[in-house]
Amino acid sequence: MKNKEILSRLYNKYVKKHLNKILISFILSLFVATSTSSIAWLLDPAIEKIFIEKDKSLTLIIPIVIVIAFAVKGTSLYFARSNIIDVGKEVAKEFQNQITESILHSDVQKIDEKHSGKFISHTIYDVSLIVNLASTTILNLMKDSFTLIALLGVMFYQNWNLALFAIIMIPLASIAAKSLGKRMGKVTTEAQERSGMLIKYLSEILKSSKIIKIYQKENFELNKANNFISEFQKKNAKINLVMVRATPIMEMLTGIMIAGLILYASLMVEKGTLQINNFFSFLAAMMLAYQPVRSLATLNIGINQGTSAAKRLFTIFDDENKIKNFSEKKDLKIENGSIEFDNICFTYKTKQESALNKLNMKIPGGNVVALVGHSGAGKTTALNLIPRFYDPHEGKILIDNQSIGNVNLKSLRKNLSLVSQDVVLFDDTIISNIAYAKLDASREEIIRACKFACADEFIDKLPGKYETIIGENGLRLSGGQKQRISIARAILKNSPIILLDEATSSLDADSEQKVQEAIMYLTKNKTTVIIAHRLSTIINANKIFVIENGQVVAEGNHSELIKNSNIYKNFYNKQLNKH
User: Fold this and answer.
1) pLDDT tens digits along 468-515
2) Among candidates 45, 37, 76, which has minimal Cα distance to 63?
3) Distance (Å, rounded) from C-alpha 358 to C-alpha 361?
4) Percentage of the chain surpassing pLDDT 90?
5) CA pair distance 76, 74, nearest whole angstrom
6) Which whole-number Å values give the CA distances from 94 to 51, 208, 354, in the listed order?
7) Domains in the chain with CATH codes
8) Which long-range contacts (CB under 8 A, 24 or more apart) does 62-66 make?
9) Angle formed by the axes of helices 443-452 and 509-522, to 10°?
10) 455 close to 488: Cβ distance less than 8 angstroms
């Protein structure tokens, strides 16, 4: 995507809607330009009337007018910046909302492939560069362009020969800044990458604090942190270095120009073609023009930074999801909740071997079905295909003879509840975490779900009871307590199909018995697919599928498999020995 296309997209989608505020800043920029040029022009009558002609009537008037000119300039600049800050704030809000929306609607596989730190860096670092382009850069373009034009007008008014000599600096400064702008785009991209790596590292050490302490790796991690921070700061320093490279160029050009002007002006004064008051007014205009010339010369640096950041974000926005919700597709109609895996093949992008290889399963509706097998056999992958976290590369999954790929995605997930071994909780109250499954649930419904999940006992002992803040991912709760909150959430949703991935793995024997009773009540006449290692869960299942290397190698109930499957018998004996 070329810079012109990026700028066009930024304008049409994000900036155009704020043209009213930009127009106000445009008008205020004209006031800034007029007042700035009037300050330079006023030196002409001030020197001529007050110092040369000794006209006392203007001794007070001209200084007052100069004060007014400065006041108009300051006030106009304040309101122009305030307006443009509002534009930047709205653009930032829209971009950050769009990044959040992109994350929320992204395929699970896409999220898995990119570290969370990268998304955080996009949200903070890249958006700040785009905001600078959409606000400060736009204001500087208007304000400094008008100011430069107005000051050039004063310079030409005072002496057009000197003015022609002075404007030679403008194209020279622009040529120097153009090469710096291209360099800035590259350096900014490198800095963003280092920012993402640093945020990624910081998020990892925050999650791994216990592991770091138990292995006494504080100094090791500190050295790694220093490396990440040093690399990030080097790139930031390089950005600042590129920015200030314009300074010696501009200072040198200004010095040459002023020296040449003084020499040229002195000759004109000698010949009588230039008055001293005209020269001082011209010199003031030229010195005031230095700032807008320097700003405009480096304008492409901000543009290149902003377009580089926008390009990275547009790449994320334009990356289409493979798994989409099409509202025009028919809703899933649940009759008895039967599930069928028909020749399912699936391979993760990060692995070469297949996770599932022509997997075939028929899960009767209203039954409790257990998936057993060694770690890595494909059980969790099979479970994750049912809610379409991933889509199979071959084959299809049917629910009540309806292909889940041909039904409305929302209606599919509405009929599913999931409790995973990796419990996900929010840094909120217990009641909010449980109500996440059903936001309009009454307090009585939530308490009932907690009783079924054996969670009410420990909740009632907490200081805030159901209003207790549980911390990031429930860090203030034990593993068993977190699991029971997760089960209560699934119970509250009351879906016809329930997916349990090691749902009782973190519970003690007493709690497990109670939860098993609750699950038995909950799953009555419902389709339940359980991945479990606990013998009680396996034995009580209506049907058991033994999965090995992504295929079903045996199926039946416990008694049948003990007789007919050596793999299941070995698996059962190992579990029995553990208990």
Assistant:
1) 998 888 888 887 788 888 888 988 998 999 998 866 665 666 666 666
2) 45
3) 10
4) 31
5) 6
6) 57, 33, 40
7) 3-318 (1.20.1560.10), 417-494 (3.40.50.300)
8) 65/38, 66/39, 66/42
9) 120
10) yes
